[in-house]
Amino acid sequence: MTEQQRNTPAQQKCKNELNQVNKEIVELTRIKDTGLFFTSDMGKKLKDLRTHADKLQTNLKKLKSNCEAAVKSRVKRKQQLESIKELLPETVATLGRTKKGRPCLEEKQTGLTKAILDIVSRNCNADEKRRCETLMSNMRLKDLLVELKSMGFKISRNGLSLRFKPRNKTSHWGRRHVSTVNVKLAKAANTLSKKHIDTHFAAGTIM
């Protein structure tokens, strides 16, 4: 198989049942071979078990064959879609995605990152001491979220925070920041919090 190995619960269930039946067949065959205490009922059960094992073996082969055929079909379809998209790029939206997983917001809501940067930029001031080129904004995260939603974007608070550069990109949370704008969330400094009636806000900093 060229695709990543998938879970096959139907095959696994069939395998487990076949293994159990084979164990019973081995046990009854052992008793039959000894010639001791092997009754007619045991002989009938052994015959039924062998018949059932044959059916399970056939069913397992069919499940494996269907699975392999499905994998080949998906791979072939994916290759065909990629070829069509290379020849006719305008068909991408019609044909849909070939990548696994849920598409990122930027794919479904184009212009999201630009809108975030534009909004934060409009609400920025230069550093008071002019010691760096960083621009500071007293805009809160929830205010930015409200403004984005008013523009028609659909995004959660956590989803929005993941669009900013992380404080520590090596942390577990930092590694989730994949598609970001050049903005960091910062805790409010004491000098800024005194000037604002809301002392609990996050400042956007444009590097």
UniProtKB/TrEMBL annotation:
Q: Which UniProt keywords apply?
A: Coiled coil
Coiled coil location: 11-73
- Name the domain of life this protein comes from: Eukaryota
Matching PANTHER family, A to Z? C2H2-TYPE DOMAIN-CONTAINING PROTEIN
Q: What is the name listed in the Swiss-Prot or TrEMBL entry for this protein?
A: Uncharacterized protein
Q: Which organism is it from?
A: Allacma fusca
